[in-house]
Amino acid sequence: NTVESGNFQWSAPSNIALVKYWGKKDNQIPANPSVSFTLNNCKTVTKLAFAKKESSISLNATSNDFSFDLLFEGKPKKEFKPKIQKFLERIEIYLPFIKDYHFTIDTENTFPHSSGIASSASGMAALAMNLMRLEKELNPAITDDYFFQKASMLARLGSGSACRSIKGEIVVWGNQQNIPGSSDLFGVEFPHAVHDNFKNFQDTILLVDKGEKQVSSTVGHELMHNHPFAEQRFAQAHENLDKLIEIFENGNLKEFIKVVESEALTLHAMMMTSMPYFILMKPNTLEIINAIWKFRTETKIPVCFTLDAGANVHVLYPNKDKGIVLQFIQDELVGFCQNGQYICDEIGQGAVEN
Ligand code: PMV
């Protein structure tokens, strides 16, 4: 190939799962299908500079010899290098040219550092997009479908949920009978009808605890091996995804709330009933959940919560209720957030080159 050097920049968003991915098999194959809303504002922006190595160097390269520098917010970040190294090792068989280049990966997040918001989904998605962009430069004939599907497959190998941060507003990852094209290997845009109730759906992320994660997702997924409720849980995820197919079509927000809140609590229930066991919610997580339930009962406004593997709360609600819900959040929920911090986000489209 003749591409000597250059650079690309892609940004990729975070996503929030409605049906949760928790438990995996070898090679980042999910134990159950999941579905997420793609976010819009919480993003990783990654610049990839590449320069072809001298041929004598690349001939001498040994199999573990990737050459890259990593900058986070403009400064070298040694701590992130092993994760990137492992990622490159996993994807090399799909992108053999990566050994021929030296890379400088320059990355930053739009959300505050150590906010307790996982940046692995957006970070791995942004890096996968850049590397695919280089493949396209080397092979301009590849189609858009191939480009995005392979980007999602690569992102999955970096961090499972990252495959849902590539393209589309609602993304499904994992084989599911009623979802044509769905795969364990990559995320696909939700292919069925979606009611207007979900248009510009809002996600306000309440930062309850910005500390380091108590349980990494790697450890978390492992907890599902030999978990007493694993098989039931995996079956339930399929059922909940089936319910959501119908709910997305008919716009029934009452039913949506039931599935989404139950999924969030089940995720935490799995952690509470594994060995070793963990409680990742904080007292303020429960205060917020109770306040949301009270507000919903009193106002009938269809606002609900979901949770990641941590204490922060994602508050989900229709765009048309934005004014009143934001007022409620400011009046009654901000007091439960660390330093009063929260992030307003909404459904977005996926990764973009910029
Ligand atoms: O992508 P991972 O391995 O970091 O796992 C993410 C797991 C959850 O965020 C808890 C659920 C999900 O589906 O995103």
TrEMBL record:
SUPFAM superfamilies: GHMP Kinase, C-terminal domain, Ribosomal protein S5 domain 2-like. InterPro entries: GHMP_kinase_C_sf, Mev_decarb, MVD-like_N, Mvd1_C, Ribosomal_Su5_D2-typ_SF, Ribsml_uS5_D2-typ_fold_subgr. Residues 205-332 form the Mvd1 C-terminal domain. GO terms for biological process: isoprenoid biosynthetic process. GO terms for molecular function: ATP binding; carboxy-lyase activity. Gene3D superfamilies: 3.30.230.10, GHMP kinase, C-terminal domain. Keywords: ATP-binding, Lipid biosynthesis, Lipid metabolism, Lyase, Nucleotide-binding. Residues 12-178 form the Diphosphomevalonate decarboxylase-like N-terminal domain. It comes from the Bacteria. Pfam families: MDD_C (PF18376), MVD-like_N (PF22700). PANTHER family: DIPHOSPHOMEVALONATE DECARBOXYLASE. This is Diphosphomevalonate decarboxylase. It comes from Flavobacterium weaverense.
